[in-house]
Amino acid sequence: MPEKRIHLGSGRITPFNLVSGVIIVLGLMITVIRYTGGLAAVTRLSDYNPWGIWIGFDLLVGVALAAGGYVTSAAVYVFGLKRYHSAVRPAVLTGFLGYALVVAALTYDVGRGWRLPYPFLVQQGTTSVLFEVAACVALYLTVLFLEFSPAALEWLGLKRARNLAVKMTMVLTIFGVILSTLHQSSLGSLFLIAPSKLHPLWYSPYLPVYFFVSSITAGLSMVIVEGALSGRYLSHKMDPAHLADKDQVALGFAKAAAFILAGYFAIKVMGISVGNHWNLLSTPYGLWFLLELVGFVALPCFLYAIGVRERNLTIIKTAAVWTVLGIVLNRLNVSLVAFNWHLPAGERYFPHWMEIGLSVFLVTVGILVFRFIALRMPIFYEHPEFEENEKHSYSVDR
Amino acid sequence: MDDMFQTLQEFMAHTDGATYLLIIGALIGIGGFWHFLTQRNGDE
């Protein structure tokens, strides 16, 4: 497959490249304004609303949707589901880029990027949940980089370094699962400090559990969405084995996502019961909560189940996109919509267009870098020089 | 609804009792859902 070199759109003026180019230029302009004029020049953040969409979307949603890396690695290397092996590299790449962009977004929000190592070197604050999130994200980004490195090293032809990196796979996977469990849940724990600010329907002592369980469905769904998009736009880069496994991966992951979504729905309902918040369901916020719970948890769960039973990939892909949108809605609800819900409308936060512009810029950068790497490195195919090696380790693993 | 409870004990007894019933319902429901999800596997 790699000998068949097709340069899809690269070096040509296509609508995609043109729109991406405009977004990149706009994003760079916003970057200059942010770093010269400060947060006030580009955001509507205030003392009431110190966290805007750069945290609510770029960080909370970004981390959840990047969960495909640890979910897929754990399924293949820890649980031994080798039939999903072809999904590991694309999922790890998506996860790595997702976390890299999370850190990039954080530097925009924090402002002084060179101070990011401060929590580890200058002021530890080890009792803070935020410290744990910072430590886990920093370590997990490193783990994802190392997990991704075999593809880059194969591309560069560095055999010894590549073999060394492959040997670390199991250790890295276990470390990655531990770190993900810690920080995916800790992102929910961040809101435990604000029971009076977060609407009771979203606030729960089980927020860390909700964030962790929903991250698994987010990861599974993102692998299906990414697989569908790659199958459509990068299929010429896939080898026969990858093309053959693609549908099997979607079906298997859809079954897992349906089951976990059912569990997530159940524990969300139990959260209402534990807080005895049934009476709040008939309020406007309650209806919004029900929309999230029924429309973006129960409905995709049912769609996944139908898709798996009927072996219908169109339904499965629809359910995957629906679930991803549900995760976006949930994280925005927790961090923005239901946060400071008691404040008068004039004091509520609505993002500045430049905040939205920067988020679009970062997502576009992620897509472009993914395309750049997928078109050059062995992500969707086995590198010919390492194919036998891979097959050997694959058969030994089985 | 909030007027129903005079003490924390009453509140906890009510909410925990309702939640335990929900947990039983969820376990049965999830078992049924798993059967629904994997039913066709056996047919093939």
Structure overview:
The complex is a heterodimer of chains A (398) and B (44). Chain A is mainly alpha-helical and 398 residues long. Chain A has one domain (14-381): Formate dehydrogenase/DMSO reductase domain (Formate dehydrogenase/DMSO reductase fold), CATH 1.20.1630.10. Chain A has 15 helices and no strands. In chain A, helix 1 (15-37) crosses helix 14 and helix 3 runs antiparallel to helix 13 (313-337). Chain B has 44 residues and is mainly α. Chain B is built from 1 helix and no strands. The longest helix of chain B is centred in the middle third of the chain and has 36 residues, at 8-43. The chains are: A mainly alpha (398), B mainly alpha (44). The A-B interface holds A 255, 258-259, 262-263, 266, 269-270, 273-276, 278-279, 305, 308-311 and B 1, 11, 14-16, 18-19, 22-23, 26, 29-30, 33-34, 36-40.
Q: Which SSEs are present, and which pair or pack?
A:
The complex is a heterodimer of chains A (398) and B (44).
Chain A: H1 15-37, H2 39-42, H3 53-65, H4 68-78, H5 88-110, H6 118-121, H7 129-156, H8 159-167, H9 169-189, H10 207-233, H11 240-275, H12 284-310, H13 313-337, H14 353-376, H15 387-397
Chain B: H1 8-43
